[in-house]
Every structure is written in structure tokens, then in C-alpha cells.
Specification:
This protein is of the alpha+beta class. It has nine helices and 35 strands. The protein has four domains: 5-42 and 347-469, Immunoglobulin-like; 52-209, Sandwich (Immunoglobulin-like), CATH 2.60.40; 211-344, Immunoglobulin-like (Sandwich), CATH 2.60.40; 476-556, no CATH class.
Length: 563
């Protein structure tokens, strides 16, 4: 990865990058394009499909290796999310990753084998941005006949093109259903509007829209919460919400023999921020076929002001390893997903101050070790401590020797920086080893425009896995279990539900019980003193050991059975 922008141009910017003070950087506008180009050159594209984007294999054009990529935004769009979505088509040199300018495209979009759109477009900078307005109710046998196009046509190239902020629009039965879409792009001309390629260059990319299902959850307090599951693995089934365990589960159709978009598990679960069963700031325990998955395969995203998202993406190779670990018997065409809310997260935090009176905070789970990607949350506030909207920033992390281990300059061609629309950005960063590190944040702009002056702040942090392991050994019982005990003591859940919950926790090794001889009694009556213990423990009147004694009693009496 490239060195952070200010480090690349140390002499030009007269910035002592390794000094820990705060600086204001002045960067002329022409340099921004240079920075962006240098950053782009360092990236090697991979020819693969992602659900919201796809890259076609390269083709030779007069000695150049060229390719087309397509991207859908918002990511994981499905019909009904919004009235419009944006489709971006990029034509570029794969060896330099630089766009080829002045391109005439013929774009055809297929849903299954049905043609839904076919038109010519022109773009000057090599990236064609289109606004798609999905509609339903087309009664034509040939769906493309229901599609209409709006915008200005280029006087020479003849295709629709963007003028100012106005993008060409395609309205019709496009992206109105879940499933796979083929985007076939023919490059008719390039370099300038009058130059035609000797033969059209044909590229095919694929986009996959998820199946969206809404489930209405009702709590014991009579609250109702809609929960959305977007599945890239077709329609899910057997959705269950267990409030006593703060757990949701469902089954995903899956074919282990396929190697297309369905060969990965990709799920997006969204819910309102006040849905307390999946609380912000608490760990998630996620399992497939009763095998817990690593945190690198999921993200708890809180950046939206109205909803939280759990995004799960597990590659096929890792799924095979999970399958080999599973000791339970499941159907070969079904994967059971379980999501359980865990213990409260203890955060490590870094604070940053900038010369424009903005402040920043970077936080991460203190229990996560080095040698893996760690989710970091970036938060930005103005002088009144309100979230800064539409902020642009870049960052870099260097180790104790000054070697950069990670950086991100953003990926938009129009401005420099990562966009944080609501003042929050989440990103997973690979931390290789236990060490001392420096975190450098640079504010580069706002509202899609770069500042004339960039603002820099640094902070130091340490990753120490040994202290993390020590802390983990001291925590015998997660505090969130007290919620279940309190509800049971108050009569909100019955004895059977309480016992079932404890059995699950013991089986999953979440609740650790000392070795206890299993009783054989067939009775299921729980003594009142155990319920009293649970109430006192939930209130903090007795310690963990006293609560565990009650659980041991249930095991000895055969009321609670564990394997």
C-alpha cells in the first residue's frame, strides 16, 4: 500500500511527518489529481464478482490490457430501499489502473435471459455514472420496451452523457427483482468522440441483488420491531427470535457444490437502533451449524443514524472449514445461522483534536488480538460536539520503526478522502503484531469538496495480546446473563425457558460451570431459593460463585441436563 499522502510529499509540504505535534497542511488543488493517480497506480485489480460490483477479465487493445468494472450504489440495494440507485461503469487500463477517457459505451442489462435495457452512452473521464429508477408493472413480453431513457445526448458521440450534476437516467423494470443481472458493455469508441475502435470490445459483468425479507419482532414488553434480512443466498426460512437469550436464528439454503455468488454466505441483517436484543457496544456471537465464526467474517455497522447493520460474508473456502468442524447433523442443502448478543465490549479509544476545532475519536474492541483484522470505528465532532456530516478524511498507521502498516486515502476520483456521511466510519484494519503504533488522521474536506488546508492530528496506541488473554481469564460469567436471571425472577419467563437458556449457555461454554455429577431425577421443579439467588445475583447482592452453586444444584438434581 502506498505511503500516506503527506509522507509521499514530505519535501513539498514541509511537514515533519514523524513529529507528534498537530499541523495544518496547505496543498494546492492541482496536487490532488497527482495524489489520486499515484494512489490508483499502486492497486492491482482482481477479476472477480462482488455482490454490489463486478470486474470483467481484461482484453488487449493495441497493446494495452483494458477492462470494465460495474458497481451498484448503495451497496446491497434491493427494490423498495429507495426510488433510485446508481450504476457506475468504468473503462480503464488494468496495468496502471488509470481510466481511459472519452468513451462511447453500448450498455445492455439482462435479468436472467430477459433484456431490460439497451442504449448508447458517452463519458469524458472513463467512468459512466447512471441513475436507475426501478419500476414494476411492465406488461410487455419484451421487457426492454418498457424502459425509457432521459438526459442530454452528446452532439458528436450520439450517446446520453452527464452534464454537470445531471446524470443520464434509465427508468424501467431494472433491479426491481432479486437475483443476478448481467451487464454487457460494448466499447464502441475511446480517446475522443470521433475515434472508433476497429471492433467493438465486449465485456460482461454480473451484479446480484439480495432477497429482502422483513420480520416483525414482538417483545415481552409489547414492543414491535421490524427486522430486515437481505440474503444473497436466496430466501431464508425458519426465522426465530428468542428474547430470553437475545438471539435470532434462521436457515439459509445452500448448495455446497456450486461455485458462483451462492458459494459464499452473504447476509445483511438490519434493525432499529433501539432494538435492545442486538445492542450497540456489545459483542456478537455468531455461529453456522453451531460452529462459532471469527470476527473477521462479520461487521456490526453503526454508521447509519437510524439503523444498525450486521453484515456477514464468509468465502467458500472458509465455509468448508466450518463444515469440517461441525459435529452436528444438518441437511446438506441448509445452513443454520445463529446470532447471539454477548458481553459488553470494553473499548480502547484514541482522541484527536484539529486546528479547525473539530475533534475525532477512534475506538476498537480491547479484547481483539494482533495478527488479524480489527474493526475500528472513526467518529468526528464539531466545536459543539455534534457529529460532522459529509466529512472527508484519510488516515495512516505506522509502527515503532516508522514503517507504514496501513493507510486509506479513499477511492473517489472527484475528491481526496474517505466520506463519512453521518460523521461515523467503520473499517477493519490488519494489525500484524503486538507493538507500539502511531495513528495519524487527516481531515481533507467536507461536502464532497477538499479543504484548501488539510488538518492533521496524531495519537499513539499499543496492541498487547498477552494482557488481553489475562483479562479474558478473569471474566467467568458475562454480565448480560443477568438479564435472563432478572426476567426469570420477575416471572417474565417461565422455569422451562430459564432452564433451556442455561443449557444453551453451558453447552456453548459461555457460562462456565465447575465439573458436577449429573443427576438422574426426572423432576423439573426449581426450588424457590435458586430463584431468590438469581434475583439477588442480578441485583449484585451476591457474587458469581453463589449463582453458580445454584446452577450446580440443578445439574445434580437432574433438573438441568448438560452434555
Amino acid at each position: 500500500m502506498v505511503t500516506l499522502i503527506v509522507k509521499l510529499y514530505l519535501d513539498n509540504l514541509q511537514l515533519y511527518f514523524n513529529d507528534f505535534k498537530i499541523y495544518t497542511i496547505m496543498i494546492p488543488k492541482p496536487f490532488l489529481l497527482i495524489f489520486a493517480v499515484l494512489f490508483i497506480i499502486t492497486i492491482s485489480p482482481a477479476y472477480a464478482q462482488h455482490h454490489s460490483g463486478s470486474l470483467a477479465p481484461p482484453i488487449d487493445l493495441d497493446g494495452l490490457k483494458v477492462a470494465v468494472s460495474t458497481t451498484l450504489f448503495p451497496e446491497d440495494f434491493s427494490y423498495g430501499d429507495a426510488k433510485t440507485t446508481n450504476l457506475s461503469i468504468r473503462f480503464f487500463n488494468t496495468e496502471t489502473n488509470v481510466n481511459i477517457p472519452s468513451v462511447t459505451y453500448r450498455v445492455q442489462i439482462f435479468q436472467d435471459s430477459n433484456l431490460v435495457a439497451s442504449e448508447y452512452f458517452y463519458d469524458e473521464d472513463g467512468t459512466l455514472d447512471l441513475t436507475i429508477k426501478p419500476t414494476i408493472g411492465c406488461e410487455e413480453k419484451e421487457l426492454w420496451k418498457c424502459t425509457v431513457y432521459n438526459g442530454e445526448k452528446h452532439a458528436i458521440a450520439g450517446g446520453y452523457y452527464a452534464r454537470g450534476d445531471s446524470l443520464p437516467t434509465i427508468q424501467g423494470p431494472i433491479f426491481d427483482k432479486s437475483g443476478e443481472y448481467s451487464v454487457q458493455v460494448s466499447i464502441v469508441g475511446a480517446t475522443n468522440p470521433k475515434t472508433l475502435t476497429t471492433q467493438d470490445l465486449l465485456f460482461e459483468t454480473f451484479l446480484h441483488l439480495p432477497q429482502n425479507q422483513i420480520f416483525e419482532i414482538k417483545t415481552v414488553s409489547a414492543q414491535e420491531f421490524p427486522l430486515s434480512v437481505k440474503s444473497h443466498n436466496d430466501e431464508i426460512s425458519n426465522f426465530i427470535y428468542d428474547e430470553t437469550l437475545d438471539k435470532i436464528s434462521y436457515e439459509i439454503p445452500f448448495n455446497w457444490d456450486e461455485h458462483n455468488h451462492d458459494s459464499n454466505i452473504s447476509q445483511i441483517i438490519s434493525f432499529e437502533k433501539d432494538f435492545t436484543s442486538m445492542k450497540q457496544g456489545y459483542e456478537l456471537l455468531i455461529s453456522l451449524n453451531e460452529v462459532k465464526i471469527n470476527n473477521e467474517f462479520y461487521e456490526f455497522n453503526i454508521s447509519d443514524p437510524n439503523k444498525n447493520f450486521i453484515k456477514i460474508n464468509i468465502p467458500h473456502e472458509d465455509l468448508l472449514q466450518i463444515k469440517n468442524k461441525s459435529t452436528s447433523t444438518f441437511n446438506d442443502d441448509i445452513i443454520k445461522l445463529e446470532i447471539l448478543s454477548g458481553d459488553k465490549i470494553n473499548l480502547n479509544e484514541l482522541d484527536f483534536s484539529f486546528d479547525n476545532n473539530f475533534t475525532g475519536n477512534v475506538s476498537w474492541n480491547s479484547k481483539l488480538n494482533s495478527g488479524q483484522k480489527i474493526p475500528f470505528t472513526f467518529s468526528f465532532f464539531d466545536e459543539n460536539n455534534n457529529p460532522v456530516t459529509n466529512l472527508l478524511f484519510v488516515y495512516g498507521i505506522t509502527d515503532s520503526s516508522g514503517q507504514e502498516i496501513w493507510s486509506n486515502l479513499g477511492d473517489d476520483k472527484k475528491y481526496l478522502g474517505i466520506l463519512a456521511p453521518h460523521g461515523i466510519h467503520q473499517e477493519s484494519i490488519f494489525i500484524p503484531i503486538d507493538s507500539d503504533y502511531e495513528f495519524k488522521l487527516i481531515l481533507t474536506g467536507k461536502n464532497s469538496n477538499n479543504f484548501e488546508k488539510f488538518f492533521v492530528s496524531t495519537s499513539n496506541f499499543q496492541i498487547n495480546s498477552q494482557s488481553i488473554l489475562k483479562d479474558q481469564k478473569t471474566n467467568e460469567i458475562p454480565t448480560w446473563i443477568k438479564n435472563n436471571a432478572e426476567w426469570w425472577a420477575a416471572g417474565a419467563i417461565d422455569d422451562a425457558a430459564f432452564v433451556q437458556g442455561i443449557q444453551f449457555l453451558v453447552k456453548e461454554n459461555i457460562l462456565k460451570i465447575p465439573s458436577t455429577t449429573q443427576g438422574t431425577s426426572s423432576g423439573n421443579e426449581i426450588p424457590a431459593w435458586i430463584k431468590n439467588n438469581a434475583e439477588w445475583w442480578a441485583a449484585g447482592a451476591i457474587d458469581d460463585a453463589a449463582f453458580v452453586q445454584g446452577i450446580q444444584f440443578l445439574i445434580k438434581e437432574g433438573i438441568l441436563r448438560v452434555q
